[in-house]
Structures
1.
Amino acid sequence: MKVFVTGGAGYIGSHTLVQLLAAGHEVCVFDNFANSSPVALDRVRQLTNRDMGLVQADIRDADALCDAVTTFAPDAVVHFAGLKAVGESSDLPLLYYQTNVSGTMNLLAAMDAAGCTRIVFSSSATVYGEAHYLPFDEDHPIAPTNPYGRTKAMAEGIIGDWAKATSDASAVLLRYFNPVGAHESGRIGEDPQGIPNNLMPYVAQVAVGRRASLQIFGDDYDTRDGTGERDYIHVVDLAAAHLAAIECAASTSGCEAVNVGTGQGVTVRELVAAYERASGRPIATNVVARRSGDVASSYAATTKAARLLNWRAAFNIDDMCATSWRWQSTNVDGYGAGETQ
Ligand code: NAD
Ligand code: UFG
């Protein structure tokens, strides 16, 4: 199959490319490297011994995107490209709406021009907002609490309307819970710029000595140990969910939202303990006030993914920490050194 991958150089995109190429798919990546490095693509080529097409351009550039999609003429599109920092989305809302919402509309128009009717979209559990009940199932009300989440909810709605209006269209909206971990080789992984916003990359940088101590944002939540509980999903499992979703899109029509998680909640303290086991290093922590906007617990109902995609998570938190550590300890500055071998 010919698969057009926006944002393919990023964290989740690069792990998905490995599996797409290993499965024999022909791939074209469209990325402006706003939050990624071409070195990630070099590493994917080395891991798979396969090449891919690359167009370096911006999804906000409708003409460039349309040219790339019509030239490649894909059977399916996987749409990762976007901005994802919750805090930044409150400071720069228009940038987020232009990139995540207008960029998605540009992509759908390009697919129309190329006659491509299948899309898998990177959505987020953040579209649910405050939990009315747990686990979150796909029928839980959509009420995001920040501009980033609203861009994802809007893009979901636009893709749903496009699918209704386009004959034979098939769209799978994958609502990721908390992607972490790295490829088992340790050659590709998450490489956040600046101070990491998310827990596991922060813990990894403490373990490797780049940061002194993890701040735990509150230990007075109504959870097993008082710290926040999340559904961490191994990025390699998440990549496999994309291949399953492409298959699903090839054999169905309409638009379906599907959670991608393990169904298991892990607290901050449990994750820190798992990382200490994986790395053999102590992780210093200090408890500070709750982070504004955080919820106590979030985890997925996983039955729809099993039924529709025939996909289930295979890896546990120890696997996630072990692979994160392999990546972090062998690439202390991420892709920063710019080394391409
Ligand atoms: P990432 O930042 O590593 O990857 C995004 C990629 O898109 C990068 O390669 C970046 O350069 C590219 N990109 C950004 N703006 C672009 C533009 N205007 N034009 C072309 N390319 C552009 O992020 P990721 O963690 O791999 O996330 C991928 C997708 O999954 C995003 O849409 C994100 O919102 C979504 N998501 C991520 C998480 C998470 O925790 N990582 C959770 C839920 C959803
Ligand atoms: N936490 C800390 N210290 C830190 C960072 C995080 O204690 O330095 C805690 C948080 O309070 C929370 C847990 O670790 O309890 C997880 O926090 P993350 O920032 O890693 O993840 P979130 O669940 O807050 O959000 C992430 C992404 C969102 C996405 C959401 C669901 O940042 O974009 O997962 O997919 F929407």
2.
Amino acid sequence: MKIHDAPSFPNPFRVRVVLAEKALASQVEFVKVDLPAAEHKQAAFLAMNPTGTVPVLELDDGTFISECTAITEYLDNLDGEPTLTGRTARQKAMIHMMQKRAESELIDAVGIYFHHATTGLGDRVLPYKSPEWAARTEWGRMHRDKALQGMRYFDKVLQSQPYVAGDAFSMADITVLGGLMFAGYENIIPVPEEYTALLAWKNRMYERPSVKNPA
Ligand code: GTS
């Protein structure tokens, strides 16, 4: 298997935590994609993932899988413990629900803010963005508020349970962590100090070996 990604970027981080959790890193070859040089917007990369984003998992049979959720599900289904996407029907549904919320309310909102209301990945990627870039800046700023609301929501969730989707660590925790990591990049959206449950959970998560040392 190959993973096409950019190390230390937040979405690639999600898959690298999964690989560390599942002890699968040795089975994967990493192929570095140069995001600031817009390599992910060139034909060769778009043939693997038409949305032009990393990470992408390439299977040995030539199949390309993009979207961290899909990659996580593939890796999680390769073997048993630990299970990151749930075992029972209820667990699977809860994890899927919280994971989706973590994407839309947090990591994607931070990403939109980063790409549309800050200098983002820089000038070389700009031509591949929407032609209404300038007009979209305000739209990007609105996503900063959305991300802050997402943080408030997850703070509330974590006041009454140890993990994002309930009693066990899961893919949903990894997505929230990716969102906070993105928000922490150059401190673009600091987590408000009053979100003590979220901050305590984050500190606890950073004690996990997979989060401390992702693949
Ligand atoms: N939903 C996608 C997933 O789950 O894989 C999001 C992928 C994504 O947005 N990746 C970013 C990217 O490639 C990298 S990261 O900074 O978010 O980690 N962005 C390139 C671009 O030009 O938008």
